[in-house]
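Folded chain entry —
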Amino acid sequence: MRGINTSKVAITEQEKEVFRSIGNNKKGAIEAVYKENYSLIQHFIISNNGTEDDARDVFQEAMMVLYEKSRSPEFELTCQIRTYLYSVCRRLWLKKLQYSRRIETQVENYDKVVAVEEDLEQHEKLTQQYLTMRTAMGKIGEPCKSLIEAFYVHRKNMHEIASFFGYTNADNAKNQKYKCLVRLKKLFFAQYKNN
């Protein structure tokens, strides 16, 4: 695929075997690639104005491209399958966004801004942080979880939160939110260090 700098990435024999297995239509190889890569693509699409349905559609298209390339004797895989799939999905999604006029920038300009490997590495890091935060949110308990979600997810102001949670005023709600954030921060960093 044009525009992918893969000079730093070594392809293992196992990776080459998986690629060949895809070309031979081996169900196990296709399922393994799907399981290993779909969540990354889903997170990328949803983080960039997409939906879960969009992510499924784009990933299916990319898997078809990968399948077709794996059957082509002229094509040589020069990067990891994960990098290749991410690059294809990224291009497909940006073209789809451009087509639907959600963005006005030309797709070609994105290749000049961030190299695919840097983008993939950054995205994987953000995905890991997101998963760590989700785990920490699951451990924080109530009412902290609901309070933090009310403020950051549902964009409620302190007066609305005070009323909903039964605090006497917005300042008390703000103090409770601060205490909850301190607890969440401790849980997040404890989990983050373990990863």
Notes: Confidence is low (pLDDT under 50) at residues 1-8.
